[in-house]
Specification:
Length: 181
């Protein structure tokens, strides 16, 4: 028997690695959030200097931390879950709950969010929207695009989790390989 995983599990591995890298990169932005915010406060109240571009960069980083790392949090099973029953379920029942949640909640919400935000983001790109503040950043369209990063990464992670659940239900993926993260 070959050691090469089936194509769908290779896809799962690629999606999981992509979201892991994106999530870890976004997590490191929290250091910038702390340092950038501290610098803005010191400049403003210590020296009377406004730093609009730095303030906006902190806002961009904040958006990336939360929206860019969301799929990684899902992958690591770090999202909020009311698991009164889930913890007591066996692996097959947990896989069914994951499949149901992904198919009927996660994916529809992501698709709605992508559909609802598409015009918002594309209009921003069409005008290469910039900050309305003097000294602000000229990349508001990039900040708004983070919404689509959220949608794409969550959809990909949802598909990855769905594939893992199907393999788990079929008994073709050991429970230890299915745990998130």
């Amino acid at each position: 028997m070959s050691d090469t995983p089936p194509p769908l599990l290779r896809l799962v591995g690629m999606v999981d690695r992509l979201n892991l890298l994106l999530g870890k990169a976004c997590a490191w932005l929290t250091l910038f959030l702390v340092l950038g915010t501290a610098l803005v406060v010191i400049l403003r109240y210590g020296f009377g200097i406004g730093a609009t571009a730095l303030q906006e960069a902190v806002l961009y980083a904040h958006a990336l931390v939360f929206m860019g790392a969301t799929a990684w949090v899902l992958q690591r099973n770090g999202h909020v879950r009311v698991d009164i029953f889930y913890q007591k379920f066996g692996p097959r029942s947990q896989a069914l709950v994951e499949m149901f949640g992904t198919l009927f909640f996660l994916l529809p919400v992501c698709l709605f969010l992508g559909w609802a935000s598409w015009d918002y983001v594309s209009n921003s790109w069409a005008t290469l929207e910039a900050s309305s503040e003097t000294g602000g950043l000229k990349f508001v369209y990039l900040q708004k695009s983070i919404i689509l990063v959220l949608v794409v990464s969550l959809v990909l992670q949802g598909i990855s989790d769905l594939i893992k659940s199907i393999y788990r239900l079929a008994g073709r993926l050991p429970t230890s390989e299915v745990t998130h993260g």
